[in-house]
Amino acid sequence: MTLLDDQSIQDCLAELEGWSLEGRIITREFEFEDFVGSIRFVDSLVEPAEAMNHHPDLGISWNVVTVAITNHAEGGLTDKDFELAAKISRNYE
What we know:
Elements: H1 6-14, E1 20-22, E2 25-31, H2 35-52, E3 57-61, E4 64-69, H3 79-92
Antiparallel strand pairs: 1-2, 2-4, 3-4
Helix pairs in contact: 2-3
């Protein structure tokens, strides 16, 4: 897997609504009506993450889920990270 350069990262981010860059990680917060909605959303991420064998870092605070994605093995961002982010965004819609 090849690490993306800064321009490629910015180009990929431009295609993803709501995601931002924090160092070598892309993040997004997803808001729900309550804790149950947050947990259901997290549960919906299991299948795509397992299918890709690529797992996001998650933070849950009652009605907000923070998703952080990077390629730990590669030490930065790859196309796979942005592919997973797009799938996660579709689960939220």
